Amino acid sequence: MAVDDAIRRRLASFARSRHTRTRVFRPDRPCDWQATAITDPRSREVFTEDGAWQYVADAIEAGVEIEVIELQQPPGKKGYVMNLASTDPKRPIYVKLQLGGSNVIGRSFHYTTRPHENT
Description:
Number of domains: 1
Distance between the termini: 22 Å
Oligomer: single chain
Largest sheet: 6 strands, mixed
Shape: globular
Number of helices: 2
């Protein structure tokens, strides 16, 4: 399922503001957000929290492919998954987001655990 422009705009806009983004772990909404353990491929420095969110927003606005999935927790909710460039072309950064009513929830930001081919 393709992500329409309105969803892209909401995801990017919410990701850009500290007031409309969160990555807080809850048992009903687990997250694995490791931004400060990952090297930003643009600067070759470790991501800051703000920098990671800006990287995500920039990628969304640049048209990165976004896959819509059904989340396991909470069941029935949609997740938005993307693989972003990292310093290792065979190991992209796996990002999973969830839209809340008036915010975006960062569910995952870590190196992918799946092998990835650059084709």
